Amino acid sequence: MAEISYIQAITAAMNEELEKDENVFIVGEDVGGKGGVFRATDGLYQKYGEERVIDAPLAESAIVGVSIGAAMYGMRPIAEIQFADFILPAVNQIVSEAAKIRYRSNNDWNCPITIRAPYGGGISGALYHSQSIEAMFNNQPGLKIVMPSSPYDAKGLLKAAIRDNDPVLFFEHKRAYRLLKEEVPEEDYIVPIGKASVKREGTDVTVITYGLCVHLAKQAAETLAKEGIDVHILDLRTVYPLDQEAIIEAASKTGKVLLVTEDNKEGSVIGEVAAIIAEHCLFELDAPIRRLAGPDVPAMPYAHSLEKAFLIDEDKIEKAVRELALF
Amino acid sequence: MGENRHSSLGLTDKDVINMYRTMLLARKIDERMWLLNRAGKIPFVISCQGQEAAQVGAAFALNVEKDYVAPYYRDMGVVLHFGMTTKDLMLSGFAKAEDPNSGGRQMPGHFGDKKNRIITGSSPVTTQLPHAVGFALAAKLKNEDFVTFTTLGDGSTNQGDFHEGLNFAGVHKLPVITLVQNNKLAISVPYEKQVASENIAVRAQSYGMPGIVVNGNDPLDVYKAVKDARERAANNEGPSLIEAVTVRLTAHSSDDNDRTYRTNEELEEARKNDCISLFSTYLKQCGVLTDELEEKMNNEIADEINEATDYAEQAAFASPDTLLDYVYEK
Amino acid sequence: MDTKKITMPKLGESVTEGTINSWLVKVGDTVNKYDPIAEVMTDKVNAEVPSSYSGVIKEIVREEGDTVAVGELICYIETENEQESEQAEQKNQPSTGNLKERPIETSDETSMRSRYSPAVVKLAGEHNIDLQSISGTGLGGRITRKDIQAYINSGKMDKAPIKEKETEDQTAIYSAGGKDNEIPVTGIRKIIAENMTRSKQEIPHAWMQVEVDVTDLVSYRNKIKTEFKQREGYSLTYFSFFVYAVARALKEFPEVNSTWAGDKIIQRHDINISIAVAKENELFVPVIKGADEKSIKGIAKDIYQLAEKARSNNLAPSDMEAGTFTVNNTGTFGSVSSMGIINHPQAAILQVESIVKRPVIINNMFAARDIVNLSLSLDHRVLDGLICGRFLARIKSLLENMNEKNITI
After folding, report:
1. What is the C-alpha separation between C20 and C48, in angstroms, rounded?
2. Has residue C81 got a pLDDT over 70?
3. Which residue of A lies nearest to B136 if distances are taken between CA atoms?
């Protein structure tokens, strides 16, 4: 087992699936000779050729729409949107088409497309290279939304997404790309979509989050452990549809729940998590459910001071957990 | 005896009779749908009337054994030729469980039937065009020799998906044929207020493919253009855009009153170009069709439609239990 | 033969009615299925309504020009074929399965008996209710908020042992044969009684009194009071000066600003002065919050506003919370000496008596001076004579040094 980064895990997953299944192909902006603006498709064009690693015209609706057509035929396209912020021109194709193809055809057709997009801030990306976009899609039955928090999960979940017979949005945190490294098996494995994962066992406060915030929560938990506060961390991994059982179990474990997202607070994924807990855990709760999220401003600004003020970090998580622990 | 134009296109007399029968069947089913709507039995109708020649002429030029079609909501003529039956269409009109398009989940005109390679469609217009390009991309990647055919209306050529899709097809030289059925009305808005270019076919130039205008009221003219386009596609010469100029003989849908935006005179003018009577006249002039044969055909079609209507009306609706089915793979 | 109804069809999404423009048939006409029978106009479309049956028009129910709701009868047709379309209507129902209604389970199980919602726990705590003694009507025997509310309303709460003892005592009260006026004890009077009893029973009271010469203060206040009232709209009372002085002294003697808490004494950080405001037979004790941070004028304004609120029944619970020491204006009633009962759970109460002119010897000469007595009741568990003596001496010094030159209102 070698230690690899989050982005290398993503490249490895695509490489293995391209190798394994001739129906798999990649299409996106700059994914070919350049290997992607973040180099997620590094070396794949050279290995599999221009027909399977396709440099698409700069037009997101076509990238997704053409992939949907190919997927309906039986291919397994991986459509890359260069930044999650730029997925909006393709929303009609994703929401009106991909999400509804199985349902509207009464199971006659299906659409096994994977749409990858880097999301999240902390890289001086300003308003249009930093957004978390998942909440826009998380009331669209028919879609699955996966947001891995570690290299191991990223590889296993991406392989599962490519093999899934329904459309999957796969959001990768761009600050995680080179920040997170761990030992990842070279052999084939998948991480199941739709299953949350306990990343740390604890007894005092439950933190439920996803994506890069899982990493931040883990770091905060180590500091808090020294103060005698034992944090339980649930990584949602799939933010739509949510793993209700795991959420109920994790919330019930400590009765004190902190929900964390980098997305703007109102209408975010964690609001739905809070609703699930409120519906099921009235008698288990020992404190009000608490949300820690980005502020309700359009997106994080460019200036470092403002970006930092927007972003979730270990300190903010620590403070919120401490307050809950004392409650 | 009039000039025989179909033989030179490689069409036998039997072929053109079948072509006419399919056009007539589409027209008669459509007329029945309106009656059922006005009798309060089905909630919605959206029509093919006036555009049967473009639809059937094009469909006959395709290979029904292997080609894929991504039709738009008026394409009853296309789907009938691609294997959908009168009964199927009636089941769709009545929204019954057996409807092969959607099991009663979608409005009529939202075609889809995998066994007949009819790609499922939606209501937002032009989304099917990139899908057709995607099927063509699959054909290229898998080295398959099928061609994909898609259609849309004139108003839809203003959508981003029209331009994005055609450009993708042009860049990658994909085997896809796009047929625009230009009935010169986008619901109520006339062509002059929709499209700035002299015609739609010229838009093809931007996307590196031939664009041609044909008489959409003549199935043979459309047939020839699509036949040529299919050959180009099959020979790896890339995509084509065909504009079939045609007429819309009904309101936009059962919920529309077209008298609020077009005059009786305009409609009368359109009726002069009704493709059914024009083609009937042609077939009779070249001796392929007789009045007796036409009456027999009409009677057979009436029986077929009556039978299908009764069947569909009596068929079961989907059970409420099935509401949650097929959001995802089971 | 069979008579069929033809009803107004729904002509378009969102359409709810149609107007019959003209009938295309008359009674006795033979029509085929799908033959047009009437022209109907709606706000979306104009349409010919076809017959759903073959037969003879038997009766036309609605006239031309009538606007008819979707689904309402417009005419009758007599048909040959009875079966036609009856089957259709029957078989139109879903073929497979039904969403069966499940009866709500009403078993006697008590799995939820000991699961208390936060609302239930809060209510029970507030009313000192033992949840074990209540039966729940909720799912699985759960005690609902309504169950607690019903228990409170039922009056079962009043059967506490102490109350029964009180009733016994009352029977021993002398009765003057029905001539006495018996006033039921309710509301505020009842609460005052309970509080006073509690304070007197729990707190070992001790008393101390000092005499203060406020001649300079009186002359200053008399000089400015009229102008002040005109300018501010409320009176500059003597009481404001006393509260001001007490707040300053409390700041220096936190021991007095405290509470007995069984195993500990809590010295309060905030100085919130309760003042007694009487109204008929009611007594309110609103609070001047952060009195040590306020000017004399600020205090005068607070007193004015709180008294107004009390008189107009507008005191909010928050106006009466968090007092840490009480100053009682007994001088209003002409009292020159009184023993206040401490406002539980505070540690002391100061009675400000009447200011009276008295001969006083100064520099071996009689002088007419304005003198006031300040009487302090103290919780002897918390406070002793020494500290209280110093506290009163400090107030005395502050008041006696208030004169035209050094007072800032």
Report:
1. 10
2. no
3. A70
pLDDT at C96 over 50: no
Q: Which residues of A touch C118 (CB under 8 A)?
A: 285
DSSP B288: S
d(CA B240, CA B208): 9
Longest Cα–Cα distance of chain B, Å, equals 61
Q: Give the Cα separation of B138 and B136 in Å (integer).
A: 5
- Which CATH architecture describes the domain B7-317? 3-Layer(aba) Sandwich (3.40)
How many angstroms separate the CA atoms of B25 and B88, rounded? 13
Residue numbers in chain B where pLDDT is lower than 70: 1
pLDDT of residue C107: 53
For chain B, how many residues are written? 330
Catalytic residue among A129, A173, A215, A232: A129
Judged by CB atoms closer than 8 Å, whether chains meet at B32 and C34 is answered as: yes
What residue of B is the nearest CA neighbor of C12?
Answer: B255
Chain C residues touching residue B315 (CB < 8 angstroms): 91
Chain A hits for C115, CB-CB cut-off 8 Å, are 283
Measured CA to CA, the distance from residue A139 to residue A181 in angstroms comes to 32
Comparing alpha-carbon positions, the chain B residue that sits nearest to A67 is: B134
Give the whole-angstrom CA distance, residue C66 versus residue C62: 6
Q: Which pLDDT score is estimated for C13?
A: 79
CB A233 within 8 A of CB A317: no
Q: What is the mean pLDDT of residues C367-375?
A: 91
Counted across chains A and B, CB pairs separated by less than 8 A come out at 142
CB C273 within 8 A of CB C291: yes
Q: What is the mean pLDDT of residues C54-83?
A: 90
> And the tokens for A321?
């957990």
Lowest mean pLDDT among A143-147, C111-115, C188-192: C188-192
Higher pLDDT, C109 or A20: A20
B74 catalytic? Reply is: no
| Model pLDDT, residue C167 | 44
Q: Is the pTM of this model over 0.90?
A: no
Structural domains in chain C? 2-91 (2.40.50.100), 101-198 (no CATH), 203-400 (3.30.559.10)
The domain limits of chain B are 7-317
Respond yes or no: is residue A129 known to be catalytic: yes
How high is the ipTM of this complex? 0.96
Q: Is B89 helix (H, G, I), strand (E, B) or coil?
A: helix
Across A230-239, C61-70, C73-82, the highest mean pLDDT is recorded for: A230-239
Report A:262-301 residues touching C (Cβ under 8 A).
Answer: 282-283, 285
Residue numbers of chain A with a pLDDT score lower than 70: none
Do B39 and C51 count as a contact with CB atoms less than 8 A apart? yes
